[in-house]
TrEMBL record:
One of its GO terms (biological process) is porphyrin-containing compound biosynthetic process. May be a heme chaperone, appears to bind heme. Homologous bacterial proteins do not have oxygen-independent coproporphyrinogen-III oxidase activity. Binds 1 [4Fe-4S] cluster. The cluster is coordinated with 3 cysteines and an exchangeable S-adenosyl-L-methionine. GO terms for molecular function: 4 iron, 4 sulfur cluster binding; coproporphyrinogen oxidase activity. InterPro entries: Coproporphyrinogen-III_oxidase, Elp3/MiaA/NifB-like_rSAM, HemW-like, rSAM, rSAM_horseshoe, rSAM_sf. This is Radical S-adenosyl methionine domain-containing protein 1, mitochondrial. Residues 4-276 form the Radical SAM core domain. Belongs to the anaerobic coproporphyrinogen-III oxidase family. HemW subfamily. GO terms for cellular component: cytoplasm. It comes from the Eukaryota.
Length: 444
């Protein structure tokens, strides 16, 4: 791999981990504060402490990268800042302002075209808060709707109901006249379990047909609303989530839909949305170029540097991943260490710099997208031998996979939508082949 002499930072992720309660499918690093607690003094104290530490982390990272290692790292005008969580819209907007001001005073350039995204959950913001976001030049909201159906929302242990969802959408519709806050993305979850998971005895059971019907209604509803961007995730059952640990749910097994049924849902969803939306990434649909996000695509590039701050957040810097501790207490200890020794940060990364990991990450990221991968990038970065090994494997795969497209020995992509369903398999086959060849060449 030819290493660049200097590397640029253009994208920042800020993790704000507070949620009202933990959703049953959630395996993210979150800190639940309890429902209706967002305005109480105790939560304000918690936020102030978190704010203090995240600000220290930003300052120390700035010293470490751009003063101690400024021969490598350079700041460029920021393309994106993403407030993710958790539920960032629970965080006081005044404190968001402090974070943005600090980012600027530390020498990062926020411009009018810097995309600033705020993940928001219905029931955690009002018109006044949205007006404040506009004043902060936050220009994109990612709204966690997940479903328009009360039973499904209860089943997922979401803090909101369908009515709260509609109220949140109405508040955002009124912001359409704003100068900055013009982009809204809606998140939905498909492939719900066909049984009642809620502890609420009044929640009636759901059978498979009803789950399917509700999904049709959710899709119809989102089409009517016409947001600029839609993210549709299949319900993932990850270790650490309530569904995994307490309900023993596993993807593809009852009460979740079978793999075949989940694949049918994926195709059905594509068919419903594609007349209006461009299905540009496995889980993402965009209505026009104006609604195309800038932040999420950095993850799909697979090798793009970005800075992240906050509990549980991961940065990727020069093929090393730096992940902070996943509880607030341990995160605060981590920042204390950083205050004593800013290089503590660089000493704790996970190395992803071997060729195998790099290429796997690039393939996995780019084959998720409609654009796919330009293999000339691989040739230029990793040399002719690696390029030839990959091309040979692609030629073999083309004989058995009708969903792989390879143009001019250069552009590799998956046929949309069917190809997206085999993305993991294709990446695994190419990676395995590459690993075997690299290993054999090393031992020659
Ligand atoms: S709102 Fe999001 S981050 Fe918070 S518990 Fe639910 S899924 Fe997790």
């Amino acid at each position: 791999m030819k290493n660049n002499i200097t590397r640029n930072i253009e994208n920042i992720y800020i993790h704000l981990p507070f949620c009202q309660k933990k959703c049953f499918y959630c395996s993210f690093p979150v800190h639940a504060i309890g429902k209706n607690k967002q305005d109480n003094e105790h939560f304000d104290n918690i936020q102030q402490t978190y704010l203090k530490y995240i600000k220290q982390e930003i300052v120390q990272t700035n010293i470490m990268l751009f003063k101690h290692h400024n021969q490598i790292w350079q700041k460029k005008p920021l393309k994106s800042i993403y407030f993710g969580g958790g539920t960032p819209s629970l965080f006081q907007p005044e404190y968001i302002k402090e974070i943005l001001n600090l980012i600027q005073s530390e020498g990062f350039f926020i411009q009018d075209d810097t995309e600033i995204t705020m993940e928001c959950d219905p029931g955690t913001f009002d018109a006044e808060k949205i007006q404040f976001y506009e004043e902060l030049k936050i220009n994109r909201i990612s709204l966690g709707i997940q479903s328009f159906n009360d039973k499904i929302l209860q089943n997922l242990n979401r803090p909101q109901n369908a009515q709260t969802n509609y109220e949140a959408i109405q508040i955002l519709k009124n912001s359409a006249k704003f100068k900055y806050l013009s982009n809204v993305s809606i998140d939905l979850i498909m492939n719900q379990p066909q049984m009642t998971c809620s502890k609420d005895k009044n929640n009636l059971s759901i059978n498979l047909n009803e789950v399917d019907q509700i999904w049709d209604q959710d899709l119809e509803q989102v089409v009517q609303l016409k947001p600029g961007h839609i993210s549709i995730y299949s319900l993932a059952i990850e270790p650490g989530s309530y569904f995994y640990e307490k309900n023993n749910f596993r993807e593809g097994q009852f009460p979740l839909p079978s793999d075949e049924r989940a694949a049918d849902n994926f195709i059905k969803t594509h068919q419903k949305l594609s007349p209006i939306y461009n299905h540009y990434e496995i889980s993402s649909y965009v209505r026009s170029d104006l609604n195309q996000p800038k932040h999420n695509p950095i993850y799909w590039e697979g090798n793009k540097d970005f800075l992240a701050f906050g509990m549980g957040a991961s940065s990727l810097l020069n093929y090393r991943r730096y992940t902070r501790p996943k509880t607030v207490t341990r995160y605060y200890e981590y920042v204390e260490q950083l205050n004593k020794n800013p290089n503590f940060y660089l000493e704790n990364g996970e190395d992803e710099s071997d060729i195998q990991s790099q290429i796997e990450s690039i393939l996995m990221g780019r084959l998720r997208t409609f654009q796919g991968l330009d293999l000339l990038d691989i040739k230029n970065s990793y040399g002719e031998d690696i390029y030839n090994i990959i091309c040979n494997k692609i030629e073999m795969l083309l004989l058995k996979s009708p969903y792989l497209i390879f143009q001019n020995q250069r552009y590799l992509k998956l046929k949309c939508p069917e190809g997206y369903l085999v993305c993991d398999d294709i990446v695994a086959e190419i990676s395995y082949h590459l690993q075997k060849k690299i290993f054999r060449n090393k031992n020659k």
